[in-house]
Amino acid sequence: MTSGAADEADRLGELAGRLAQVRARITAGCEAAGRPADDVTLIAITKTFPASDVALLASLGVTDFGENRDQEAAPKAAAAAALGACPRWHFVGQLQVNKAASVVRYADVVHSVDKLRLVRALGSRAAGVRRQIGCLIQVNLDPDAVDAARGSGDAGRGGAGRGGALPADVLELADAVAAQDGLLLGGVMAVAPLGLPPGPAFRSLRRIAESVRAAHPGATMISAGMSGDLDEAIAEGATHVRVGTALLGGRPPFVR
Ligand SMILES: *Cc1c(COP(=O)(O)O)cnc(C)c1O
After folding, report:
1. Which of 6, 117, 157, 206 has the highest local Cβ count within 10 Å?
2. Which segments of the chain have a pLDDT < 70?
3. At how many degrees (to 10) do helices 116-128 and 170-179 cross?
4. How far is the CA of 244 from the centre of ligand 1 (A)?
5. ∠95-215-156 over CA atoms, to 5°?
6. How far is CA 221 from CA 64, 133, 190, in A?
7. Closest protein CA for atom 10 of ligand 1
């Protein structure tokens, strides 16, 4: 074996071990919640990791991958395809309107839809390349953002920081997605607010998801839970967990 092949075999073994642990957590979470284990889809978040890791995880049966920056995701999706890995790609990061044209070329689902402008840009770009892009409305669950918008009287075009629409604006965005050719309303997504227990945040996300589903029965996805809090998310109905560190290992600091 060349040293490259030996390194790759080591990495495959490491990823297989971590994947087994994450899958065991998902299974245990589903069991505790009385849900079937195949209720929850694992999305491997590969930001900062190479396309070769995508190919290795795909060979281990991972079907869904996510990235949070277009500059990194676009070439990585192409490089993974060149290695024979053509998984479902999820875009999970804050998205600038001017990146919509690039993202609709490789992404199957965008988790971070939080502005009407973005809905329109994604819809027209998706229609332009004749693709149907799944969209999740990202919800800002940070209580400070909700208070700030209330105080300012601004109907809240999303809070600062990690992005997301205010809960009060979610239904309007969901209606807008559902009305756009080229887009399919999948459901909702959130990141638990920093420094607070995740359970109550995921519980409010679940209620918001239910109100969206009441208006749009096909919108069944709840994207919630990362390496640190996927257990709490599954307890509150998450259908998609986005896992980076627990699967791939630590990232360099300051990369979100
Ligand atoms: C990086 C990232 C994740 C994965 O985070 P980990 O803590 O490494 O599992 C999930 N969701 C989003 C939006 C991310 O940016």
Report:
1. 206
2. 1, 151-161, 254-256
3. 20
4. 6
5. 45
6. 14, 14, 11
7. 242
